[in-house]
From TrEMBL:
Keywords: DNA-binding, Phosphoprotein
Ranges for domain HTH luxR-type: 150-215
Pfam families: GerE, Response_reg
The organism of origin for this protein: Mesorhizobium kowhaii
Protein name, as recorded: LuxR family transcriptional regulator
Any one GO MF annotation of this record: DNA binding
Entry keyword annotation includes Phosphoprotein: yes
């Protein structure tokens, strides 16, 4: 990334600057982003943190337009953050700022509801335009075959596993699932472990976030 030393691209007269929060574990990346954003009059950097917990706390206390997050934070990764945002129903628009060209990460971000995605080695112009697009309510990600994005791990699930995922999204506990299906809690835990393995997630929140994202993308059936 090349930081610029002079303020450029001033926001049009009367137009508010885009309020940005940065979450990134690498202090050098934070420093470069800070300099880039502060040298561009279209943006206002409200804060920079290194952990997902700090970002989520900021999202509750502070009003901002876009969170620019690294894929690996001090305490969690981007998937965890996106899942928590969905689980807590936070009004946060997120651009993932990745240093990894792994297409699997990009697909996971799309499935979990990220609105923007760019690379740390992109030209600053691309990074700025991605942030601006997300701030203005658009989705801005690198080109990817949409058919491959939609081919989510949920497609591998059996009917029973989809039913289990649905009740998880409704907030059922392991005990409630066991009681209402007539199986033991240990059996529920066994089924959940298999479900998480199939979805390539680590916990309930991430599984529910994937399920919620697919439901939002699914076309609604016509009425009548």
């Amino acid at each position: 990334m090349n930081a610029r030393s002079a303020r450029t691209n001033e926001a049009p007269s009367g137009q508010q600057r885009v309020r940005v929060v940065v979450a990134e574990r690498n202090p050098l990346v934070i420093s470069a982003l800070r300099e880039m954003l502060e040298c561009d009059g279209r943006f206002e950097l409200l804060g920079a943190v290194q952990s997902g917990k700090q970002l989520l706390e900021l999202a509750v206390k502070t009003k901002f337009d876009v969170a620019v997050i690294g894929w690996r934070l001090a305490d969690m990764d981007g998937a965890d953050v996106l899942a928590e945002v969905q689980s807590r129903k936070l009004d946060v628009r997120i651009t993932v700022f990745s240093n990894d060209h792994d297409i699997g990460i990009l697909k996971q971000c799309v499935r979990l509801g990220a609105q923007g995605y760019c690379f740390q080695f992109d030209d600053p112009h691309i990074i700025f335009e991605t942030i601006l697009a997300v701030a203005h309510g658009r989705i801005c990600i690198p080109y990817i075959d949409i058919n491959k994005v939609n081919d989510t791990p949920l497609a591998q699930l059996t009917v029973r596993e989809r039913e289990l995922l649905a009740v998880l999204s409704d907030g059922w506990t392991n005990l409630q699932i066991a009681t209402r299906t007539g199986i033991s809690e240990n059996t529920v835990k066994y089924h959940l472990k298999n479900l998480y393995d199939k979805l390539d997630v680590r916990n309930r929140a991430m599984a529910v976030a994937l399920y919620s994202s697919e439901k939002r993308r699914s076309p609604k059936q016509p009425v009548g």
